[in-house]
Amino acid sequence: MMLKLIGVSHRVFCRTLLKARPRVLVTMCMMKRMRINMVIKPTTLPSTSSSSATSHKARRTKVKAQAADDSSMEQVSGTTTISSHELSKESQVSSTGSSAASLAGIRDMLSDGAIIFKLKDLSKATENFRSARKVGTSVFRGSVHGMDVAIVVIKNPGFAAGTSSTSITADFVAEMKNLCSVHHTNLVKLIGGCNSGSQVYLVYEFIDTGNLRQYLHSQYAPGFSALPNWTGRLQVVLDVAKGLEYLHHHTHNAPFVHKHLKSSNILLDSKLHARIAYFGVAKIRGETDTMLPLVGRTASVLIAEEVSTSSTSTSSGEIQEVRDGADPTSRKQIRHSVRRSNSIKISGTHGYMAPEEKSGGIITPKVDIFAFGVILLEILSGKEAVSFQIDPHTNTLKKTLLPDVIVAIFADKDPGRRLRAWMDPLLGDSAPLDCALKTAELAKDCVNPDPELRPEMTKVALTLSKILMNSQAWEKKILACRGVLTSTIQPR
User: Fold this and answer.
1) Left if phi > 0, otherwise alpha if psi is -120 to 50, otherwise beta: which for 200?
2) Which of 73, 145, 148, 150 is the least crowded, having the fewest Cβ atoms under 10 Å away?
3) pLDDT band at residue 483 under the 50/70/90 scheme
4) Residue 108 Cα distances to 78, 102, 104, angstroms
């Protein structure tokens, strides 16, 4: 019976079975449909759940439609097989293109591109720069695209100089691209900026867990510190040293100078990891535009020359070369520095500014090292960088600077005893005296009045790493001894 049915056309076969056995017709036509679907869509498996959900009446209607157009379906079946092969080739090309597009998207996400914001977006983010949004002298907290940011408002030096707006915008975009390419785990990330003409806005990521000054000197609870542990304080200053080392020695351009380093510009995250904030402000202000590194360079790049060992600035405010040739015992190394223009105001925080910066406006990476030394002294003593006391004898106000105090301590016959008396009492006995002495000596070298005698940040970071490891080993030893002592004297 089945051999005879093979030679019969599909249309006659369906009509014959329709009169005799409808259930057999439905089963055979469903098998025919499954075969056609497998040819048209070879990667699609039939869904049993959807087939069971279809009513018997709907199946019979589909079978009649397929039986009526059987010959045309056979033609479609043949052509679909060819087009499915071509479709597989196109899908491979499409897959390759989508992979390339996804890789390009990843590169875009990981690129160093700066976001140039519009002023109206920043005004909306800060509610038109309301005073309630102010978190610093010129810093506002805002929300851009659901992300909390810190917006620093800076006076535009290029606009004051009378440069055209087109040139200012082009220079600003190039500078922002340069600044946003600086990435380090101990630096607060610069997201982008905005140039409105008279003012420039720098947009940083926002960290709301406080700064180092707040952790050391609580204004709400005097005598309390959120960093009472010696090793915790050492870890903070080591993080700062690593961030400065990256800025001075590992950026792709010339050594990057922060210039405004202080304890209030060091933010601590939830895990007490330190991050240096606002590292591009001095660059945008034009305070470090003419900075030259302290390395040998030909004198042709300088405007004038001067054979002198002093750091006094000239009336013209030009860039000059300072030679150490006056000293016969010197190594005759040319020391380059910067004589800043008198039209540019020298700005900084009192107590953190290096002597050469205050006297002549000389900007080198050494000014950051001086400020870092002051922060080290704050960690040691728990005191402010500048403090004032009333002299009971003369009834006058006396100013005390931490660099002057550390020099006096090491001038004493017993610097260890005097240092212990001067250190923060909140540290208690958590700091070993030899490690505290090495830290104080490093701070004294950093605040040396002669910038040439200050160590490089690479050496500073290495020294602090050794001090931290020795302090941690000492701390573990003391804790082990305390555990033995406690178990020994326990009552019966």
Assistant:
1) beta
2) 145
3) low
4) 45, 10, 6
Contacts of 170 (CB under 8 A, 6+ apart): none
CB contact at 8 A, 358 and 324: no
Residue 135: both structure tokens together: 């978190």
Q: How far is CA 255 from CA 87, 294, 440, in A?
A: 56, 10, 27
203 near 193, Cβ under 8 Å?
Answer: yes
Q: What tokens does 80 get?
A: 């679909």
Q: pLDDT tens across 112-163, in order?
A: 578 999 999 999 999 999 999 999 889 999 999 889 999 999 987 766 555 5
Task: Give the alpha-carbon dihedral of 251, 252, 255, 259, to 10 degrees.
Answer: -60
Which two structure tokens, joined as six digits, stand for 380? 């040691």
Intra-chain end-to-end CA distance of the chain, in Å: 102
The pair of structure tokens assigned to 431 is: 């700091």
Q: What is the mean pLDDT of residues 313-329?
A: 36
Q: Specify whether the CB–CB gap between 131 and 190 falls below 8 A.
A: no
372, 460 in Cβ contact below 8 A? yes
Kindly report the number of other CB atoms within 10 A of residue 359's CB atom.
14
The topology under which CATH files domain 108-206 is Phosphorylase Kinase; domain 1 (3.30.200)
Please give the Cα distance from 190 to 337 (Å, whole number): 28
Per residue in 53-92, pLDDT tens? 445 555 555 545 454 444 433 333 333 333 444 434 444 4
Q: Are 276 and 266 in contact (CB under 8 A)?
A: yes
Contact 353, 424 (CB under 8 A): no
CA 300, 301, 307, 309 dihedral sign is negative
- Determine the Cα–Cα distance for residues 239 and 333; give it in Å rounded to an integer: 32
User: Is pLDDT larger for residue 137 or for residue 366?
Assistant: 366
Please state the domain extents for the chain: 108-206
Contact status, residue 306 vs residue 322, Cβ threshold 8 Å: yes
Other Cβ atoms less than 10 A from the Cβ of 64: the count is 14
Nearest to 435 by CA among 403, 402, 463, 405: 463
Residue 202 tokens read as 């720098």
Handedness of CA 377, 383, 384, 385 (dihedral sign): negative
* Other CB atoms within 10 Å distance of the CB of residue 333: 12
Sheet containing 304-307, strands listed edge to edge, beginning at the edge strand earlier in sequence:
304-307, 320-323, 335-336
